[in-house]
DNA sequence: AAATTGACGGTTA
DNA sequence: GTAACCGCCAATT
């Protein structure tokens, strides 16, 4: 199970997401060099150990929809200052942040 | 080895 | 602007 190396990259990026901002799985996947690895990132998050303190609550899908089975994610984001639409989706248009805006990765 | 599922994305209708 | 379909990759059964 060495593939977790990829998940590690995801964790590293997610860890750098600033408060009050959000990122999409596709954006992270693209950053890792694979535009269609969105699902892989999602799966990695589901397996993401809480010990890593990953702010996975700042990670949402392309539609700004929060993770199913994890309703408190919205509460966490709300605590970060992120606004939500009536449909329960995050205003990614306003809170999305690019990895270019994140601190430099000194892993590669 | 094959089939099914899943914290998804993008395109077409 | 919303709804539905297909496509992608990996892990699990």
Please mark out the parts with pLDDT under 50 across 5 or more consecutive residues, or reply none. none
Biggest beta-sheet profile: 2 strands, parallel
* Strand percent estimate: under 5%
Spatial arrangement of strands, main beta sheet:
1-2
Bulk shape: globular
How many β-strand runs? 2
Going by helix content, strand content and strand pairing, the class is: mainly alpha
How large, in whole angstroms, is the Cα Rg? 13 Å
Fraction of helical residues = 25-40%
Number of helices: 5
**Gap between N and C termini:** 21 Å
H-E string: HEHHEHH
Mean pLDDT: 88
Plain-language structure description:
The chain has 108 residues and is mainly α. The protein is 38% helix and 4% strand. It is built from five helices and two strands. It has helices at residues 4-14, 25-32, 38-46, 72-80, 92-95; strands at residues 23-24, 59-60. A two-stranded parallel ribbon has the order 1-2. Helix 1 packs across helix 3 (38-46) and helix 2 crosses helix 3 (38-46). The longest helix is centred in the first third of the chain and has 11 residues, at 4-14. It is globular and about 40 Å long. The model has no long low-confidence stretch (mean pLDDT 88). The structure holds a DNA duplex (13 and 13 nucleotides).
